[in-house]
Amino acid sequence: MRDAPIGVFDSGVGGLSVLAEIQRLLPNESLLYVADCGNIPYGEKSAEFIRQRCQVMAGFFQRQGAKALVLACNTATVAGVADLRRDYPDWPLVGMEPAVKPAAAATRSGVVGVLATTGTLQSAKFAALLDRFATDVRVITQPCPGLVELIEAGDLHSPVLRELLRGYVEPLLAAGCDTIILGCTHYPFLKPLLKQMIPDAISLIDTGAAVARQLQRLLAERELLAEGPARATRFWSSADPQHLSAILPLLWNGPGEVGTFDL
Ligand code: DGL
């Protein structure tokens, strides 16, 4: 059981930013990754649809014998993690949530920006997060339609992407944010571009590393940490696997066989 793999999924390639943190912290673990690219973007889909996709993913990773599941997607987590926790009470599950708590603790200007999907920002779970941790700071939320599709096409710095991103970031700068939360797992891939657009004093916060630490804690508590060596990471895409194979080298530092996910 210790050497069983860990299942990780996202609507597409965004979760690879989390997968990289997991691999860095837990190099002995064997990892399985599903990119639900056929259903991108989750951020503009109904919560009910995303809940169903979460169930499909959970069923798949159970059949693969995964010892833990990571929802490497903020949008999937707000929609689906509660149902999965109910349905799989003994399975270590880790979800993502925008880093509101650390951002509220870190801000000096008292203004925090959040870049995330429409689905995440409109969710009750996000509202509860603000009520809990952001009562003393001003939070400016910015949905970012279109970014995920460009990243999925392997675009991390074209003029079109740059202009779209600038339009999303400028209102946050104008409002005096000194801390910007990257509340979608695709956005860490835009950090190099974002850093060119914002003053050095502004921090960008995401939760990939914290999720990897939480996974480590849950596995350690259950004596499930792998002794290694890890097997090669396996990937699946619900769209054309050749497209994922083609853009993988841009986003993932390692080899990757991509299979078809047809559930
Ligand atoms: N990467 C996902 C997230 O963290 C969502 C992207 C999408 O809209 O599909 O929210």
What order do the helices and strands come in, and which of them pair?
Blueprint: E1 6-10, H1 16-25, E2 31-35, H2 47-63, E3 68-71, H3 74-87, E4 93-94, H4 100-106, E5 111-116, H5 118-121, H6 124-133, E6 138-143, H7 147-152, H8 159-174, E7 179-182, H9 191-197, E8 203-205, H10 208-221, E9 234-237, H11 241-251, E10 257-260
Parallel strand pairs: 1-2, 1-3, 2-9, 3-4, 5-6, 5-7, 7-8, 9-10
Helix pairs in contact: 1-10, 2-3
Bound molecules: D-glutamic acid (DGL).
Feature tags:
263 residues; Rossmann fold; binds D-glutamic acid; 4-stranded parallel beta sheet; alpha/beta; 2 domains; 11 helices; globular; 10 strands; 6-stranded parallel beta sheet
Broad structural category: alpha/beta
What's the tally of helices? 11
Inertia-based shape: globular
Specify the biggest β-sheet. Answer: 6 strands, parallel
**What is the number of domains?**
2
* Strand numbers in spatial order across the main sheet: 4-3-1-2-9-10
In terms of DSSP E residues, the strand content is 15-25%
Bound molecules: D-glutamic acid
Describe the structure in your own words:
- This protein has 263 residues and is an alpha/beta fold.
- The protein has 2 domains: 6-96 and 208-260, Rossmann fold (3-Layer(aba) Sandwich); 100-205, Rossmann fold, CATH 3.40.50.
- It is 44% helix and 16% strand.
- It is built from 11 helices and 10 strands.
